[in-house]
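This follows on from our talk about sequence and fold. Go ahead and set the record down below:
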Amino acid sequence: MGGQGMKRPIIFCDFDGTITESDNIVAIMRHFNPPGWESLVEGVVTNKISIRDGVGRMFELLPSSSRDEVAKFVFDTANIRAGFPELLSYCERNDVEFLVTSGGIDFFLLPLLEPFPVSKERIFCNASDFSGERIRIVWPHPCDEHCSNDCGMCKTTVIRRYPKEQYLRILIGDSVTDFEGAKLADLVFARSHLITKCEQLGLPYVPYETFHDIVRQLNSMREGE
């Protein structure tokens, strides 16, 4: 036995800039504009500071009292990328496990996913604590001993729980939090910065604009088996 046909497909899907059309963390910072946020974003994008450090410090710039305002801003402005319900129903029909693996934060991410049939235990993201004066980000999914990138929400740690001998590992993403995961995936659907990174690393990828593109590609792969 063996071969791709025997492996169970599993999708690891990013949230910010992937399920949603734009990066919600950057949108929050741009909208509320706390002094100092631009250099933190720049530091994360250029790998000068870790994702965990950068995102933690960005949210510390906001008072805990702004929680509802921030969540409402994301809820009112974030657009879900076209074809997301169709991708979920494709996964349901074809017994494809679907996980959301996100560097986003629970207090705005979970309300946006609420209307969709994704169970909480399949959503991996960062958590938040509003008990102090400033918003504090909590990291329930840290890096394992194989990752030293201080990711915050470590996608490669989650991916490694699904051994490549048993799973066909599919990553859907767009940006810096997806770079390491792309190296482990059997199939990468990429847009934006992730395309640039895959090309730099010589990793094969399939470009997408909407989830309809991804469903089409997955269907044609099934037919070609």
Observations:
- The beta strands are 8-13, 97-105, 123-129, 136-138, 167-173, 187-190, 206-207.
- The chain has one domain: 4-223.
